[in-house]
Amino acid sequence: MNLIRKFLKLSISNKRVLLEAVCFLFLAKILIVLLPYRFLKKFFGNYKLKCTESNFKRFEVENISYLIQKVSNKLPIKFNCLNKAIAAKSMLKIRRINSTLYVGLSKNNKNKLIAHAWLMVNDIPVTGGKNNDEFSEVAHWG
């Protein structure tokens, strides 16, 4: 009930952006489950292209980053790093802000391979940026 009250107190524009984040998170989750990689990669952008962005509002990027993280933690479904990166990339694309999606690999303490995806706008981590130094980059899309 507390979440509903907080939502109702938001401005119309904040409600819209929050609902946009929810929709893109669910859409990303559904696409990853249903589509084979050859179709899914079209949502990532151009392979091996690192985008740089000069004209963007840092606040907008940080706001999308914050919303994706907050919303994904409050919903009853678990969203992984790739879901969050695709959702944020889609939201940034609507705002004509270029971003680069990275995928990296690492080994855990049991020597098993683990993957991680993160999204960057220039040097600003949008999603998954806290522990991406532990992963060796294997691919990126701009």
What attributes characterize this protein structure?
142 residues, alpha+beta, 4-stranded antiparallel β-sheet
Condensed summary:
The protein has 142 residues and is of the alpha+beta class. It is 46% helix and 19% strand. Strand 1 and strand 2 form a beta hairpin.
Ends distance:
40 Å
What would you report as the Rg, rounded to the nearest angstrom? Answer: 15 Å
- Proportion of strand residues: 15-25%
Strand order within the widest beta sheet? 3-2-1-4
Mean pLDDT: 88
Count of all domains: 1
What sort of overall outline do the alpha carbons produce when their principal axes are compared? globular
Number of alpha- plus pi-helical segments: 5
Helices and strands, in N-to-C order?
HHHHHEEEE
Low-confidence stretches: none
- The helical percent reads 40-55%
- How many beta-strand segments? 4
Question: What can be said about the biggest beta sheet?
Answer: 4 strands, antiparallel
Q: What class would the helix/strand composition place it in?
A: alpha+beta
